[in-house]
Automatic annotation (TrEMBL):
Keywords on record: Calcium, Repeat, Signal
Lineage of the species this protein comes from: Eukaryota, Metazoa, Ecdysozoa, Nematoda, Chromadorea
Domain EF-hand as annotated: residue spans: 66-101, 119-154
Region called Disordered, residue ranges: 20-46, 151-177
Taxonomic source organism: Pristionchus fissidentatus
GO molecular-function term, one example from the UniProt record: calcium ion binding
A Pfam entry, by short name: EF-hand_7
Stored InterPro entries: EF-hand-dom_pair (IPR011992), EF_Hand_1_Ca_BS (IPR018247), EF_hand_dom (IPR002048), MCFD2-like (IPR052110)
Signal peptide: 1-15
Coiled-coil residue spans: none
Name the UniProt record assigns to this protein: EF-hand domain-containing protein
SUPFAM superfamilies, per database record: EF-hand
Length: 177
């Protein structure tokens, strides 16, 4: 039963990801690694190839997942204690995982150094400040989805302003709630 649910979720996410990729220009998907790492999930939560890599050697459940199902899988993949919430340690694991999977350009195939402890602390503080909407010190799945939607809406608004002839500035950070 659990395998069927995973297969269903992966399939739905993959289909929606393919649909979104055909609707948006390629540059819309490019986010500097440092910025993406600061926003837990980022494009990696939508990247079916990235998630498939973690399922290598297993049945390929991502073949028929929607983007929402892939996001759920991505969240659960980092929820190490399976309590339905991501704490600071799990967020650090997700950031370092993202860092290892997405080397910054200009490093000639070598991994750039991992963020320092101070940088990781600042990233976690930023994530919790921006995405922990109920202030409990954790990111639950609902908060994760809401934060992803806020970022997607900001990216769309930024793209629209760029298409309308606006100056090239990064999108503003998500609002504090």
């Amino acid at each position: 039963m659990n395998t069927w649910v995973v297969l269903l979720v992966v399939g739905v996410v993959a289909a929606q990801q393919q649909h979104q990729q055909h609707q948006q220009p390629a540059e819309a998907h490019q986010v500097p690694p440092a910025q993406a790492a600061q926003h837990f999930g980022g494009d990696a939560a939508h990247d079916s190839a990235h998630i498939k890599e973690h399922l290598d050697g297993k049945i390929d459940p991502t073949a028929n997942m929607t983007p929402e199902q892939l996001q759920f899988h991505y969240f659960n993949m980092h929820d190490l204690d399976k309590n339905g919430k991501l704490d600071g340690i799990e967020l650090i694991k997700a950031i370092t995982h993202f860092h290892n999977e997405n080397p910054a350009p200009g490093h000639d195939g070598q991994m750039p150094p991992l963020p320092s402890e101070v940088e990781l602390e600042q990233m976690i503080d930023s994530i919790l400040r921006d995405d922990d909407f109920n202030g409990d010190g954790f990111i639950d799945y609902g908060e994760f989805l809401k934060a992803q939607k806020v970022r997607e809406d900001q990216a769309r608004a930024h793209q629209a302003s760029m298409a309308a002839g606006g100056q090239h500035h990064p999108p503003p950070p998500p609002p504090h709630q």
